[in-house]
Design a protein that fits this description.
It contains 14 helices and ten strands. By secondary structure, it is an alpha/beta fold. The strands form two sheets. Strands 4-1-5-10-9-6-7-8 form an eight-stranded parallel β-sheet, sandwiched between helices. Strands 2-3 form a two-stranded antiparallel ribbon. The longest helix has 24 residues. Bound molecules: N-[3-({4-[(3-aminopropyl)amino]butyl}amino)propyl]acetamide and zinc ion. The site of zinc ion has 7 residues, from loops.
């Protein structure tokens, strides 16, 4: 999987609409600051991958069903309509509030056992969906949120269609967005959309490996009760004082049918390549044992040494090595998450994808009959019987792929 001249062959799925989201800051500890989740992040990454020769593919429009597979309708409707409501309510023009920010949160402590009601006031309603003050909505936000999810679904489709790996340059990021709420600079969960798309395309079991510096609480929440999607994350220890503060602990191992299908490895602030790569290797071993047939890589590069949002100290070579370990597991849909140091962002993403590509070249599927894109990683899954179930689903999914193409080319559901 190399291009002439040795460049990066992994397709990069992209939409210019991802630049339309301009949060214009974040409110942190009561003060509005510039914020680090800026449009330039995407242009820097795109420039780096383009210069490396990667093919750029347009994000294909998907209908609402792709979003509703992992999110409540109430959240999707809120995100699709809140800016129009905010503007119609005169908040920007009459009150100087140029972005949507919540101020009241219906926490368990506030509700005290009473049922959650939808507030009549627009400014009262925001806190029902947005769980922090750092995740602002403005005029182009919904178009970008939607484009990022489309890019993720497109990357999953490319992988289901036989690409060894594909990368979605998603912005805004997604792994902090849960079934019914958003925060942490994330709105809809792009990685979850990709994982669900891979399941529906015939992968019997999928794993999300999350190497963003922060715990992906949203992705964990979406799949916490499910055995078919394993969530695995290495991140800075929330117990040491880091976002998202309330989850990401090692004791969180899944629930009900999903018991054992969730794995968190929190690291001490200051951790560098050695402990971080050891954690990635451990996550890979667990993903393999789970029998995942396809991998979603939540590729945040904010564990970079120079990143302003995290105290981890991982090098670009560390990210390359992680990508290689992950690429060996099976087909990879990589989804951009965080990463905020504009000077090194492009180098880190390129390093990670270069590693993924190298790992994919080393991958030897358990059974290679020339048609099955999805097959369980190694023999562990075969022992559990997952191999046969996955193989049977794969054939049907590939037969159905032209239909999926037609749907992807259809109009977006209007908001
Ligand atoms: C996707 C992702 O990486 N989201 C990161 C969310 C964590 N943001 C925490 C922000 C804390 C405030 N940052 C202040 C930086 C110094 N002004
Ligand atoms: Zn992050």
């Amino acid at each position: 999987m190399t291009v002439e001249g040795g460049g990066l062959a992994v397709p990069v799925v992209w939409s210019e609409d991802c630049l339309l989201h301009r949060p214009a800051g974040e409110v942190w500890l009561g003060l509005r600051e510039d914020g680090t989740e800026v449009p330039e992040r995407a242009t820097v990454i795109l420039g780096s991958l383009s210069a490396a020769g990667a093919p750029i593919r347009p994000a294909e429009a998907h209908d609402e069903a792709a979003l509703l597979a992992v999110h409540d309708r109430a959240l999707v409707n809120h995100l699709a309509t809140i800016w129009a409501d905010w503007e119609a309510g005169g908040y920007p023009a009459d009150y100087g509030r140029d972005r949507v920010v919540p101020y009241v949160f219906p926490t368990a402590a506030m509700l005290a056992g009473l049922p959650l009601r939808l507030p009549s006031a627009t400014h009262g309603r925001v806190g029902m969906f947005c769980y922090d003050t750092m995740t602002l909505v403005g005029p182009g936000s919904w178009e970008a949120i939607r484009a990022a999810a489309d890019a993720a679904a497109t990357a999953a489709r490319l992988v289901a269609a036989g690409q060894p790996a594909a990368y979605a340059l998603c912005r805004p990021p997604g792994h902090h967005a849960g079934p019914s709420g958003y925060g942490g600079s994330c709105y809809l969960n792009n990685a979850a959309v990709a994982a669900e798309a891979l399941r529906q395309a015939g992968a019997g079991r999928v794993a999300v490996i999350d190497v963003d510096a922060h715990h992906g609480n949203g992705t964990q929440a979406i799949f916490y009760d499910r055995a078919d999607v394993f969530y695995a994350s290495v991140h800075v220890d929330p117990g040491a004082g880091w976002f998202p503060h309330y989850m990401g602990f090692a004791a969180e191992r899944g629930r009900g049918a999903g018991q054992g299908a969730n794995r968190n490895i929190p690291l001490a602030p200051g951790s560098g390549d050695a402990p971080w790569l050891a954690a990635v290797a451990e996550l890979c071993a667990e993903v393999q044992a789970h029998g995942a047939e396809a991998i979603v890589l939540s590729l945040g590069v904010d564990a970079a040494a120079a990143d302003p949002e995290s105290p981890l100290q991982v090098s670009a070579e560390g990210y390359r090595a992680a990508g290689e370990l992950i690429g060996r597991l099976g087909p990879v849909a990589a989804i951009q998450e965080g990463g905020y140091d504009l000077a090194s962002l492009g180098e880190y993403v390129l390093a990670a994808l270069t590693g993924v590509e190298a790992g994919r070249a080393q991958h030897r599927p358990a059974q290679d009959d020339g048609r099955a894109q999805f097959s369980p990683a190694q023999t562990v899954a075969a022992q559990t019987g997952a191999a046969q179930a996955g193989g049977a689903q794969t054939g049907a999914a590939q037969a159905a792929m032209p239909e999926a193409d037609q749907r992807a080319g259809g109009p977006r559901a209007s908001s």
